[in-house]
Amino acid sequence: QVQLVERGGGLVQPGQSLRLSCEASRLITSTFWGYGVGWYRQAPGKQRELVAQMTTGGVIDYADSVKGRFTISRDNSKKRVFLQMSNLNSEDTAIYYCTVGDSWGRGIQVTVSS
What we know:
seven-stranded mixed sheet
């Protein structure tokens, strides 16, 4: 079973940036490229929502609320997925989850507060 570990969360002030990373294990490196990857988030009292996703062909989709501020990327050789987040605001506060194929990470907290 694929295991995913997210890193890079924390507390930042509005307007600042943060980069999340997600590393997959128990997965053959040469097969990683064949999985779609993504990031979801769940804010307190809200449903989990898609933040960004990337298909195996490199097609990327973002939630409207993060377009122009967030960038998803991947490094297939290292089995990693990244989410670069810029100009963060309080509405970005949530637990962020990485997905690779049908597998989910445990999530990592991102808090944006002054």
